[in-house]
């Protein structure tokens, strides 16, 4: 079969009695064999989109196709071609580990001998070979996750949807899931994964779509998204500003040749005298970008520590001298400087802002 593995066109979902659209005109396509990351803050509409694509949620408008089949009019056929590993554990607690796999395959019409063979092979592959008879309630979060992946693979799907596959997993379990995603990709399975984890998205995905408020804000390869950010690197400085205000420093640093944008970051938690009282969390965001309302910088005395991030369009090291000289001229005391490459997290924050959902 030709054509994309997943196609979403002007998709809209409004839940009953909800004041707004959970998915609000989303369009994208996922090529066959691709690992596609759907990235977005809480409530962005990722799970709802996966719900529509996996026939669990009825769309309000627009169209969605999986392997060329319409998810509404061809729902039964679509279900036989895809698998979903949901955000929340939905294993059958009345069945053993192995029977969760066997029953799922039976539902999908896999023959008796074949489903036993596949179950044993997948238990082995997912590191669960010693647990065939265990009850679901005795599994750890990571074991449940691996079992749900195994269950999804029992009927050999062409497209696998993973909704936050590694949230809540320890680093070993997360790496295991990542290895599995890469193996599936090598086997030609299309993988659509949702995540908040930028490193995970950057590491695993061929392309990433960033969604917020049910709409697509950007779609590209991780490297392409990072290139789209203004600047080629960052310089982060921590200063005690002296007489100058934060706005002053931001304005003066913004005027330096090679500096594209200056962002004020949250204050350091263990600030100097005059900083935030102990135990009080720093303001979650200050001076964000992207035209989204952000809270003001914390009011404070001139001795508060300030953290500023400069996005620069040159090698960040060449800006070090001018930045320190300018801050010195403003009688601001520099306590820390670090240089960095922009990351997918910077893209995400630049597009979706810093406000909590
Ligand atoms: N069954 C439902 N009924 C009503 N509203 C819902 C339902 N499920 C989700 N919503 C709302 O739809 C919006 C999108 O939710 P969704 O779960 O799709 O977001 P998400 O991107 O998966 O978020 P998270 O990262 O927290 O998992 C949210 O505002 C949410 O409150
Ligand atoms: Mg979700």
Q: Considering the protein shown, what is the CATH homologous superfamily of the largest domain?
A: P-loop containing nucleotide triphosphate hydrolases
Distance between the termini: 41 Å
User: Any low-confidence stretches, pLDDT <50, length ≥5?
Assistant: 270-302
Rg to the nearest angstrom? Answer: 24 Å
Structural class: alpha/beta
Tell the overall outline: elongated
Q: Which percent band covers the strand fraction?
A: 15-25%
Total of DSSP H or I helical runs spanning 4+ residues? 11
Q: Are any ligands bound, and if so which?
A: adenosine-5'-triphosphate, magnesium ion
CATH architecture label name of the largest domain = 3-Layer(aba) Sandwich
**Succession of helices and strands:** EEEHEEHEHHHEHEHEEHEHEEHEH
Q: What is the residue-mean pLDDT, rounded to a whole number? A: 88
- How many separate structural domains? 2
* Major sheet details: 6 strands, mixed
CATH topology of the largest domain: Rossmann fold
Helix content: 25-40%
In the CATH hierarchy, what is the class of the largest domain?
A: Alpha Beta
Number of strands: 14
Numbering strands along the chain, what is their spatial order in the largest sheet?
6-7-8-3-9-10
Can you give a write-up of this model?
With 357 residues, the chain is α/β, with parallel strands linked by helices. The protein contains 11 helices and 14 strands. Helix 3 (97-107) packs across helix 4, helix 3 runs parallel beside helix 5 and helix 4 packs antiparallel against helix 5. It has 2 domains: 6-227, 3-Layer(aba) Sandwich (Rossmann fold); 230-341, MTH889-like domain (Alpha-Beta Plaits), CATH 3.30.70.1340.
């Amino acid at each position: 079969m030709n054509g994309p593995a997943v196609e979403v066109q002007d998709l809209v979902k409004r839940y009953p009695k909800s004041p707004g659209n959970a998915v609000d005109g989303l369009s994208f396509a996922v090529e066959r064999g691709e690992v596609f990351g759907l990235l977005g803050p809480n409530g962005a509409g990722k799970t709802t989109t996966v719900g529509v694509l996996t026939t669990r949620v009825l769309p309000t408008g627009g169209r969605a196709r999986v392997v060329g089949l319409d998810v509404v009019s061809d729902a039964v056929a679509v279900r036989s071609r895809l698998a979903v590993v949901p955000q929340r554990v939905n294993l059958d607690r009345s069945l053993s580990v192995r029977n969760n796999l066997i029953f799922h395959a039976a539902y999908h019409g896999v023959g008796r001998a074949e489903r036993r063979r596949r179950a044993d092979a997948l238990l082995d592959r997912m590191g669960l070979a010693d647990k065939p008879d265990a009850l679901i309630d005795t599994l750890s979060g990571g074991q449940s996750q691996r079992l749900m992946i195994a269950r999804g693979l029992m009927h050999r799907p062409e497209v696998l949807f993973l909704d936050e596959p590694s949230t809540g997993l320890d680093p070993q379990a997360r790496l295991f899931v990542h290895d599995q995603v890469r193996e599936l990709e090598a086997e030609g399975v299309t993988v659509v994964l949702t995540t908040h984890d930028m490193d995970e998205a950057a590491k695993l995905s061929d392309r990433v779509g960033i969604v917020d408020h049910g709409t697509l804000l950007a779609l590209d390869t991780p490297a392409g998204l990072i290139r789209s950010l203004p600047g080629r690197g960052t310089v982060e400085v921590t200063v005690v500003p002296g007489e100058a205000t934060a706005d002053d420093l931001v304005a003066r640093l913004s005027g330096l040749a090679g500096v594209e944008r200056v962002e004020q970051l949250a204050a350091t938690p263990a600030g100097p005298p005059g900083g935030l009282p102990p135990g009080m969390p720093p303001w979650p965001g200050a001076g964000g970008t992207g035209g989204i309302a952000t809270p003001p910088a914390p009011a404070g005395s001139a001795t508060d520590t300030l953290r500023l991030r400069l996005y620069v369009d040159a090698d960040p090291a060449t800006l070090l001298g001018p930045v320190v000289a300018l801050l010195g001229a403003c009688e601001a005391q520099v306590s820390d400087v670090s240089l960095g490459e922009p990351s997918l997290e910077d893209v995400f924050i630049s597009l979706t802002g810093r406000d909590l959902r």
